[in-house]
Amino acid sequence: MEEDNNTEEEQLADAIFTEKSDICQGLMNRYAKSSAPQHRHLIATAAAVRSIITAEALPLTPLSYFAAVVTTIVNSSETLDTTGIAALSTLLSMVLPAVPAQAITHPKAVEAVSVLVELLRSRGEGMAASSLRAVVKCLGVLVGFCDLEDWDSVSLGFETLLKFSVDKRPKVRKCAQAFLERVFKSFQSTTVTKEASKLVLSLFKSYMPLAVRLNSLKTVDGSKPENLEILHMLGVLKLIVPYLSVKVGLKILLELLKLMNAQFSALTRHILKIIEALFETSRVEVIIPEADNIISSLSSYVLLGEKNPADTVICAATVLRGTLDKLDAGERSAWIRNLPLVFRSVAGLLTSEASTASQASTILKELIKHHMDQRTLLINGSIPFQDASENTESSAIKSICAVFENALNTCDGIPNEHVLDVISVLFLKLGEMSYFFMKDIVLKLADLTSCANGDISDTRHLQECIGSAVTALGPERILTLLPISLDAENFTCSNIWLVPILNKYVVGASLRYFMEHIMPLAESFKRASHKVKKSVIGEDLQAHAHGLWGLLPVFCRYPTDTRQSFGSLTKHLISFLKKNSFMHESIAISLQELVNQNRSILRSSEGDCESNTYAIKDSMIQSSSVASYSKKTATKNIGALASCSMELLQALTDLFFGSPPEKRSYLKDAIGCLASISDSSITKRILISSLERLELINGVGEFENVGNSSTTEKDTQRRVTMELASSLVEGANEDLIDLIYKFIRHTLLTADEEGQCKAYYALSRVLEEHAWFCSSQFIELVELLLGLKSTDDITLLKSRFACFHILLVHALKMSLEEENTKAFLILNEIILTLKNSKEEVRKVAYDILLVISSSLENSSSLSSEGSHQKLISMIMGYLSGSSPHIKSGAVSVLSVLVYKDANICTSVPDLVPSVLALLQGKAVEVVKAVLGFVKVVVSCLQARDLQSFLTDVLNGVLPWSSVSRNHFRSKVTVILEIVVRKCGSAAVKLLTPEKYKGFVKTVLENRHNSKGSSKEADDPEKEEKRPNASSRGSDFTSLRQQKRGHKELGFSPRKRKREKQPDGIGSGMKRVKKARHSNFRNHEKQTEGQARGSVKKNMKRSSRREATSRGDGERKKMAWKKQKKIHK
């Protein structure tokens, strides 16, 4: 107990005493009312010391207290009892930390250390642990005042700290160890460090005989103090070994290695921790001399695996990895020599229990990534084929691969995921060199896959491992080792299971290899399927043929010979497009792969000498063997693709017109990719040819109206042609864009809704890809679109609004007068759409407004912030209109934007007051919308931001608390409850006008009485820590709740008999929640219901009390009539 109090006092001293503090006064302020004996002794001792200082006319500073206490100990150490010593030592330990740096001279510090050491020598046996701890702390602080460059100055204090660092009393020992580490860190002189290190080594060696004896035991007998001292000594070493001199560090390491056995002992954990700490901070020269001995000892320990505790085995494996890191940096020959041994020992842990195996797997993967590289295996810059065995690095790698091959051979069944993961990393790190070192592993993995073909549920990791081999070796070498073949006699296939793996992991292959080996193999399967008599076998062979042909897209993932082989491949592709329908999608995907991967490199910001490494689709594998493309290579590849694009475009276009809609989607993407790299004259010629063939333009290039005959067929052809035109937009020049626009304009003016939808989409593509067209044709485009009749068709409306989105953003950024006028017209149509009676239509309008707002916010242009505020200002302009319909729509828009980003309220200070001003009007629709807006504002704003609008909000909404129709009173009640929860009831009462204080009081009382109320509800600080009251984007709402919430807050008007017009609140808050988060309305509806119920309940209670007080039936009757009237 005394020790705990002592610790408390020392912590207090560190916290409140400064270099000018009066220690005695501080203690009296703290402990004057305490009745604890130790506190009374401490205050009395401090008072006595202060009297000594005062008598000497010295200032009452910590330095004066220090001198007086030390003098008192010198003069009275023989006569003081243990209580007096405890008080003085505690007082000194509180005083010293407050003494300024360098305030105590070196000689005085040395003298004070001598005094304390003498006190420990003469009176230490009878001192309490708390007193000893206080003296040890004083020694630790005083050593810092000594001359740290002079060993004689610090030796006495350092030696005493070292002695107590192995003390049997825990707090004394920990205090000594902490200050010993601090002192070691403060040494700057190598001489002092060497002398201190020698002292540590001497103490450690004195314990070595005992350590050797204990090392043969698995547990230490704690009843013998000497047994515990060796453990304490090892604990000291763990702390200070990083600061020891190189020579002493090496000697201690040698002593520890003598104690390191293959089997676990009582000292093993401590030894491993010390070695680990030494390796983390020591230089290479400390490790190299004993590297072989270290690795041998630790490997022997790790090899025993489960016979030793798992944590110590992993610790030893970690130290082995650190040893290799050190050797790799300083001693290459020793690194190569020990590499196989380390891998062999750690790899044995991969079959241990899951946790150990996982950690061992991590260590091995890090070793592979850091220590194995194709470059280390190169001889004179070339790959060692025949001479691999003569290279020491190659021999080491071969030995490591043999370790994992043996692991596969010894596994019973499919190896666990940890073994396979490490082998995968090894494949990827060695790359193409895997063919020489891991050939047998590939064959073994194939055998395991063949045996497990019946049950593929447990082969995921096995397939991923083989996939790594495919990535590293490439399909050519994999298929050399594991050829896919067909027996012509019995029609059996070998290694056909490899096709799905190839389809997932091939990258950086050769197009020529596909044409010369894969395609003939697929043809052989196809021919065999026609020869076989059994239909089932024939279908299987046909499926295998299609699977092989289906490898085309993966062979187009960064192929190594695009420029050389694409011309030949094009002939095969065109042939397939004309004959084999099952290849259409594969060809389309392949062309997109080839174009997009090269374009992405050309668009990158890296230099020509840079290269990009790409991950495989649908795989987590990344490897240096993945094909790397430079910009120079990509440029040549694009040239080769463009040179063959005309034939391919024509073939794809012909196919496009004859394909069903589901096929046209991927064909259109392929056409778009090829058109983006082709000369626009080619694509324009193809488009004109298509238009002429379908008689959509006449001989002079003018678009013709669809006649009465075959109208349906003509409309269909025009829609398909418009799809084709939209795919040609990217990369088109001005002439082609002009032609496409004329086609779009003609279609918009003459086609049906389905045709218009295609035209709107094509126009949005033109506006997205060609900003110059948007600028040059802005006025005409807006007039064209606004001249067209709006629609309730959702798909058509989305396409139309997509065009409006781009045009409106452009207008807001340009800030030209005429464009501003057109921007208002666009915004006007969107706001009017918000008042549509159909929920889906209104949702489209809300979505496009959010997209427009996000586009302006996320724009990288300097004017983006101003453009966004300009949008808000434009919407606010509608608030001054004459139509309640438009006003409520504008408020609804602002509710959406505030719900998405509440900072709008502070960035546009006039926003909230301008909307609140509408509450002075009488239009029900507008009032509903404004109350919904206010609900959004108070729910979304943080309490500190809401404070600035609190007066306006209260003055605006409280007048409507007296209106019960349209639930205005209930809505105001909900708003008020949210405000109280965020800002506190005191703030609300203070700002409430006198006229409405009764209503506010009733709301607060109801809230207090309502179920679930808590004291913290009125605490705005706690409100800040809770989730936002609006419950935006709640991740915990179930799908069913979300659907129900959408239905309740839907965009359609609330179904009431009395109100058929669109609900203003719905056009505000409810639509926000429908577009963004469904759970908000559920929360508020419950709150509103509770508030409404509480008001009714209190009204009933008050009426009953009134009736009872009157005491006659007539008055009761009058009270109930009054209540009924109020409810009504």
Automatic annotation (TrEMBL):
Pfam family, one: RRP12_HEAT
Biased composition (Basic residues): 1070-1080, 1094-1103, 1118-1128
Domain RRP12 HEAT: 355-656
Positions with biased composition (Basic and acidic residues): 1007-1027, 1104-1117
Biased composition (Polar residues): 1028-1040
Domain of life: Eukaryota
InterPro entries the record matches: ARM-like, ARM-type_fold, HEAT_RRP12, HEAT_RRP12_N
RRP12 N-terminal HEAT domain: residues covered: 14-286
Disordered, as annotated region: 1007-1128
UniProt similarity note: Belongs to the RRP12 family.
Name assigned to this protein: Ribosomal RNA-processing protein 12-like conserved domain-containing protein
